[in-house]
Every structure is written in C-alpha cells, then in structure tokens.
Amino acid sequence: MVRSKNFFMKFYLALIIAFLYIPIAVLVVLSFNDSRSRVVWGGFTLEWYKTLFHNSDVVAALQNTLTIGFGSALIATVIGVLAAVGIDAMKKRSYSLTLGVGNIPMLNADIVTGIALMLWFSRFTNLGYVSILLAHVTFNIPYVILSVLPKLQQMDMSVYEAARDLGASSVKAFTRVILPNIFPAVVSGFFMAVTMSMDDFVVTYFTKGAGINTLSTMIYGELKRGIKPEMYALSTLIFAVVLIVLLLVNYMPRIRQKQIQRKLQNRKAAS
C-alpha cells in the first residue's frame, strides 16, 4: 500500500513537471532547428542565434521590454514601499479599506485595466513608451505593497521609535532602521514587479502607440505571418538566464556557508 502510494505521488509529480517543461523543451529544440518548419527537423544549427541580434525589430522590442520592466519595477518599488509604510501606520478600519482598494488592480481583469488606462492616457497624452511605463507602474504597485506589508507587520516598531527618541530624523530612522529590516521583502517585491511587467501583454497592447513594441506584442503581431525562428532563440536565452539566476540564488548561500565553515575550521586548526 505504501509503495503504491509513493509510486502514485512520484508519477503525479513527474506528470506535472512534464506539463510544465515539455513545451519549453520543444521551444529549445526549435531554436536549434535548421528548418523553419515546426514539425520537420532540418538539422542542428546556430544560425537563428547569429541572426537574432542583427534583427533591429527584435533588438528594439527586447530593449523596450527590459527598460520598461526594470524601470516600472523600480518606480513601483519606491512608491509601494512608501505606501506600505503609510498603510501599516493606519488604524484598523482605514487599513482594511485602503488595502482592499489596493487589491482591486490585481483582481480586476487585465482587459478592463488595459482599456481604462488607454482611455485615461489618450485623453491627456499620446500613447507610446511613457504610457506603457506608467501603466506597468500602476499594476505593479499592489504587488510591491503585498510583498512589503507582511514584513513591516513582523517588525518591532519600538526600534524605530527609539531611533527617533535618540535624535534621528524620520528619513534617517527609516533608512537606517526600517529599510534594512524589510530589505529582503523589498527585493522580492521588485523582482515580482519585473516578472509581472515582462510577462504582461493585454495592458501593454492597449496602452502602446504605433511604432513601439515589446516582445509580447511583437510575437502577437507575428502570429498571422508566422513566428520567426529568432524568437525561439531569444526565448531560449531568456529561459537560460532565468535558470542561471535561480541556481545562483539557491546555491550561493550554501557555498558561502561552506566557505565560512572552512575558514572557521582553518582558524581552529591554526590555533
């Protein structure tokens, strides 16, 4: 009975992993396919990787995606951290009301948010790079708030009050006391905002102007004509970068811990 249960659990886990990663594996294989066909293998090639960075449209879309993603995440992180500090200081009723209103952009349908922002921006300015950036800042802020707020609630605010009593200004007490304590949550909120921004399509599609594209809108525009193999290569590179970052984040603390243990052992041996 125990063996059959373990087998079922392993099979279920393997099935989930297969559903998640088989499409990515197909994408990686297609990026090395010498044929433009998605069903015929034409041999191994690196041609699509070579031509990738010579395609000005793809390079421009990648630059827009990265600058909008990191730029909007940085702005949203600053605003979100300050908003989280303000919300945490509110009374219970105001806290619940403000947090509920702040959660609406996350629960709202993307198409509603995209159309609303399109109408708002087209009323006051031309749609383009700035409108996309501001739209991404708008839907990223709640994710930063939800990431930082729990960490603020766990923090002992008497330390901040003690710093204020000792003569520190509110800004200095915030940067020296509060920010170091909530910094892991700030970093988490920042990268979550980057991920949500780079992953977005609907809001970007409605708030972008003519002549500007991100990777998501560019791929959508190529569906009718057929996706270029260069996009397979670019997607593979993005996946590889994300995988390397995840491996470094997970294994660097272990490596550092082993280095510290070796140093301690060497000191003990020397003494």
TrEMBL record:
Protein localization: Cell membrane
GO biological process: transmembrane transport
Top-level taxon: Bacteria
All copies of domain ABC transmembrane type-1, residue ranges: 62-249
Membrane topology label: Multi-pass membrane protein
Keyword terms, alphabetized: Cell membrane, Membrane, Transmembrane, Transmembrane helix, Transport
PROSITE patterns the record matches: ABC_TM1
Transmembrane segments: 12-32, 66-87, 99-121, 127-149, 178-198, 231-252
Alphabetized CDD domains for the sequence: TM_PBP2
Residues forming coiled coils: none
GO (cellular component) term, any one: plasma membrane
Family: Belongs to the binding-protein-dependent transport system permease family. CysTW subfamily.
Protein name per its UniProtKB record: ABC transporter permease
